[in-house]
Each structure stands twice: as structure tokens, then as C-alpha cells.
Amino acid sequence: MVKIENSSVSAYVKSIVVDTRDYQKPVYWMVAVGTKVALQGIFAQIVSKKTTWLSSTGGELEAWPREYGRRWENRSVGVPGKGKMHALYKKLQSGLSAMVMYSSFVKTDVADDAGPGTVLLMEKDEEREDVLFHFLKSRIRVPMHESWKGWAWVTLSRNNDIRDLFGYGMSGYFINAESCERTIEKQLPKVIKHGFLKVEGGG
Q: Where are the chain's structural domains?
């Protein structure tokens, strides 16, 4: 079980996506359950950049990267340096509330100058190559053939156009669509020339 807490309140985390490579450990997505007062307090504290951390009673956070050679018992989190944070609340039958907190980076129509990046969220059972393929088809000018899904994932990952984020209950990847387009435009002629990809039929 994973909790998010500050010095006075806590809530249970159902899913969360965090960039653990960033010093601030920004949260891009979170679903949490608790009292509405606690959830609002946690949201306010994260947005105001005050100490808020994750903890677990089991091994749910074992994938969290090591800090100075050891794992932290309490893992502090923050907000992205750009973009906006949003929160939606829903009252549950149990009397508790659920909060969905997300950054504007997870929106496909970023319109608040968050930057060129997008956070692509995936359910644990989704095929990441499929999700990336459909994202690229809608965001870049290069016509994409469905048979290129595996090649695109490997190529863009190696070039760091895609990087994985820490996910609990959900997976997340930070993607720079502009960089992806440049990489595909550069690499595509080479692999087509050598017959590694088929081109007939378009996207």
C-alpha cells in the first residue's frame, strides 16, 4: 500500500507517475483516495513546493532509484518546473473522496507553454509500442506504417527521445514529439534502403 503525506495529513495512492531522474521528483499523474480535506491539503502543499512524500507498507516502491547508495524510506515529490497542475475530486460511496491530479504535460493539447514534451500514460496491460505508434501518427508529419511500431520504439528509446518515468499502478513515458520526428526522418531512409522496413501502403 502506498501513501502520500505531509506533516499533518495523508491519503492512499492508487496510481502515480513521477520523474525520478529530476531533482524535484515531479508528479505528472496521481490518483489518491482519502478525506477531501486531506486531498486538498496534499494538492496545495505539492503545488506550493512544500515537503510531501510517498511511503509504502510493502515493496511497492522498490523500483524507486537509489539515492546516495541507499533507498529512502520516505520519497519526497514535487511538481514540474513548467506547465500547470490540475486536480479533480469525486465523492465515493464510502464517504471518502478520490482526487485525480495531473500536469498539463499529460494533455495532448498542451496550450499553456508547458514545453514540447508530452507525458504518455499507459495502463499496465497496454502494449507500449501500440500506444506510441498511435501517438506519433497524430503528432508528427512522417507517415507511419503499423509494421514500424517495434522499430520506432527501439530507435526512439536509444536516442533518448522517449524516457520512462517511475510508475505505480500505471506506466508513464516522457516524449518529445519534435525530437521523435527529427530522429525518424533521419533514421528512416537508412533502414528502408537496407530493406529493414516496408513502405508500401503508407500509414
A: 1-104, 116-203
Residues 6+ apart with CB under 8 A from 129: 149, 150, 152, 153
pTM: 0.87
CA distance 173 to 136: 13
Q: How far is 90 from 189, CA to CA, in rounded Å? A: 50
Paired strand residues for 120: 173
Exposed e or buried b for every residue in 78-91, given b needs 16+ CB within 10 A?
bbbeebbbebeeee
Residue 128 has pLDDT above 50, yes or no: yes
What CA–CA distance (Å, rounded) separates 112 from 6?
Answer: 29
Q: What is the dihedral of CA 35, 41, 46, 49, to 10 degrees?
A: -160
Sign of CA dihedral 123, 165, 37, 73: positive
Q: What are phi and psi of 47, to 5 degrees?
A: -65, -35
Q: What is the pLDDT of residue 117?
A: 84
Task: Quote the Cα angle for 160-176-88, to 5°.
Answer: 120
121, β-bridge pairs:
172
